[in-house]
Amino acid sequence: MAKIDTKAGDALDKRGLTDEQLRAIFRNMLLQRQLDNRGFQLNRQGKVPFALGSEGHEAIQAGAAMAFERGKDILAPYYRDLGLAIGIGLSPYEILLSLFARAEDHNGGRQFPNHYSSKKAGLMSFSSILAAHIPHAVGAAYALKMRKEAGRAVLVTCGDGTTSEGEWHESMNFASIHKLPLVMLVENNEWAISTPLHMQMGQPEIWKRAEGYGMPGKRFNGFDPIETYAVVKEALDRARSGGGPTLLEGTCYRFLAHSTDDNDMTYRTREEVVEHRKDDPVPQFENVLLRAGVMNAADVEAMRKDVLRETNEATDAAEAKPYPQAEDLYKNLYEGAWQPWQ
Amino acid sequence: MAAFERHGLDDARLVAMLRVMIQQRTLENRGFALNRQGKIPFASASEGHEAVQAGAAMAFERGKDVLCPYYRDLGLALGIGLTPYEVMLSLFARAADLSGGRQFPHHYASKRLGIHTISSIIAAQLPHAVGAAYAMKLRKESGRAVLATFGDGCTSEGEWHESLNFAAVHALPVVFLCENNEWAISTPLSKQMGQPDVAKRAVGYGIPGVIVDGMDPIACYAAVAEALDRARTGGGPTLVEAKCYRFLSHTTDDDDRTYRSREEVEAHRKNDPVPRFERLLVEQGILTEAGLDALKQSVLKEANEATDAAEAMPYADPATLTDNVYADGHAPWR
Fold first, then answer.
1. Among A70, A32, A41, which residue's Cα sits nearest to residue A285?
2. What is the pTM (predicted TM-score) of this model?
3. Which residues fall within 8 angstroms of residue B97, CB to CB, at 6 or more apart?
4. Interface test mutation site (partner B, options A173, A208, A247, max chain B beta carbons within 10 A)
5. What pLDDT does B82 receive?
6. CATH architecture of residue range(s) A19-258+265-318
7. What was the ipTM of the complex prediction?
């Protein structure tokens, strides 16, 4: 079901992507997995307090990031979007600063790990609260419309669990009434922490809610980064040119526990995870590129080493940085030295 | 004339539905009149909702089903057994009112009839309705269902979405009836939704969705009866959308001339469900002109008597202010 749809011997349909872009997508997927695993390792070593698992989301995030226009579009992600963050320009060093909660982190070491924000990259700061960022995204899209900033759009992402929140509904409804430049991309990985999809919804396809809002909806294979790119690009292009919002549902799977604080073996079987592993998007896409001659085995090996080297360097560099100073606790909270509790 | 489809309703029940519709309109206009006379503080309007409410009430099973209505459901309340006198006690906010004169006018509650007390807050009743349906399921009370109603504006609330989703996940015995009258106070449907059919949202929840002519009480009865039967027999929830229209202002405190044209209202008046159903029953020989006239007289007499009787009742005694708020004598502010 989640196999990338390429038949042996057929020419790969690159959907307009160059070989360089295809390699960039694959590198992003390798880097995401490496950084994702690094977060878990550092947590187990007692070096970072917490990390979130995004294994299984590499294809959908690398594909979507390739459709995002840096410097124009706005990204309102959720906490499982490591690949989207690096795909639109965050560096591994910035990711590690977030995990280590160092002073130099974009949020001054004050945000949750894996909760990035970057003015430079157009990445909005986000909350762990499910669906809290969706009204923010709709507000940003509303501002783009009111300011007549054509050619720009907001890409907002969430998991399947978020679609049950009232804010999700209110946001979709408002965006559709006002035809806002917004793409709602749901990364449906079948699990909301420990809640399986059949306890989350009365039917399993999120895109089917689009008709009720009067907006286009589409479901696609989120294990296929090329398909993801094409679908997200079409929706972003429509949003940028005044065609209003789109609801997209990319099917994927969460291979790891929800976070380093979760043990998924208390609520799902090893067999289920192993079954989905057969469709792991990273080796699948590697094979696609090898078969299409976009990369050879030596290229892949060199890329892996390069990603590992970059991750190691970023880890060491971030770890060596200092924590925030205690006296900076209220920095950026109140103007000047104003302390209302005194 | 097209064949008359009565959906199993006998003459007596058809006449009973018409009576509820005439009763609703009479009491509704009485509320506005009493407000303009300075006798009651407020009334909300339900003209144009007579057919959907009389039809839905006929499908409701008294003593078994539970009703979670909203503030525009005068006809539903009457249809399932609230008396004109009880409605008037609510409007006059008298001590003998079921809520002790403490609720908003038209916010009924009746343990006897299975009507949940109503909040004015849009969509607040839906999680309550779903909770009641969840209780029925957990207690294995088969043969019972919850009927929850709301207007089109309510469908934009997060609670609406969460309620439909939860009911669908757990296949709860609840029917969601949207009385789509095209106006949420001053917000037209085009500013409420990206497309005009509430029922189209059902597919996203994995439940059946039905659109029905809300100006036709028989069609409304059939749609709600089918949905309630499915709910009572373990078939899960249904979203029914009845297309109707709000002829009056939102309430006595609103002036709809500030946001919609007289032409629009007049155009919808041509489809007024009350004269339409009167004509149908006369044409079908179910009611004679004399019978219709007698029915109207009887409803008016009842409304007049209820008005006088309720007005003569005393207000709540200020000494009872905290009754039913805290357990015996407990006054935490002292």
1. A32
2. 0.95
3. B86, B89, B90, B103
4. A173
5. 97
6. 3-Layer(aba) Sandwich (3.40)
7. 0.93
